[in-house]
């Protein structure tokens, strides 16, 4: 039996990626700048619209880090971050010597609870006498957050938002691409994300000046002199022209990828619609348009006859199907045990019940049916 993987990269049938890579070799642009980088950034800016400026970088983590650098986040600062996420959302806060303040989720989108966000801002003000320097909401598994409500709070306190759209590439909130609402947004093109450059990311900026500053810091903060002059600490964060070539090729199949991820989630949702104790995570209302990067389910053992997500995971594994628990909330991670957190139990409940199912272009309808049958067999036993 062939193994069904959680989420594998998938190159275009027409080989667009190789075409751009070959071009880079043929023209000897095998460096962290060049026509593919410019072309990929232009593609991403066209996708974002709203006059956004995009900088292609070595990773999504680097993009979050640069956003914090541009906002002047440093020691003694606090930055608010969604607790239910991958550690890469929060790590760059610590790179800057600042303190993450974790905010729990609300149960519909699984993302940052706007009311708890306001509580966290108030507590931060009391604790430090100053406002948090930034707010980092996350679009888990591609699902947008309640973006209007989050920005309502952020704007009221005049705190910049860095949207972690690493998992939300191609998702929309009220018809607009996520990642384009905040002062900054970040994208990831890691191997398992919606599209890949083998490894890479991008920072979505609101102004040309921000883009210029981001490129400056991403290329070792070198001053424009004939010799190497440095007035600030820089980073080596630029995307290479080879990786950007893969990205340009991947952009040509993005619509196919999105359609496939969404169709797969619809297939799971239909199959489990009348199954007690299995709930597929879908758009809470018509304002949400998730890319369904990963299809996810909640498993309630009280209604499945005692089968919990871990029993399902083990049974799927035995059937050569990869699945994975949801992100373990950051406020429960040993490495962040000292960080302030405003919690309501939602993310811990999600972690106790949730499972990611095989998703993406390499999962065929027959594969999805094998996943579904395996799950139904265990529950009906
Ligand atoms: C993948 C991911 C990142 C980091 O992106 P990389 O390109 O892997 O550095 C950040 N946040 C979230 C939520 C992610 O899933």
In brief, what are we looking at here?
The protein folds into two domains: 16-251, Type I PLP-dependent aspartate aminotransferase-like (Major domain) (Aspartate Aminotransferase, domain 2), CATH 3.40.640; 254-380, Aspartate Aminotransferase, domain 1, CATH 3.90.1150.10. Helices cover 37% and strands 14% of the residues.
Protein architecture, described:
The chain is of the alpha/beta class and 381 residues long. The chain folds into 2 domains: 236 residues, Type I PLP-dependent aspartate aminotransferase-like (Major domain) (Aspartate Aminotransferase, domain 2, 3-Layer(aba) Sandwich); 127 residues, Aspartate Aminotransferase, domain 1. Helix 3 crosses helix 7 and helix 5 packs parallel to helix 6. It is globular and about 75 Å long. It starts with 15 loop residues before the first helix and ends with a helix. Bound molecules: pyridoxal-5'-phosphate. Pyridoxal-5'-phosphate binds next to helix 3.
